[in-house]
Amino acid sequence: MSDPRAAGRALFWRDRDPGRYRCPGCGRGRDEVQSFHVHHLDGNKENNRPSNLVALCESCHPGGEHDLDVDDPRLRPPS
Question: Positive or negative, the Cα torsion across 35, 65, 10, 78?
Answer without folding.
Answer: negative
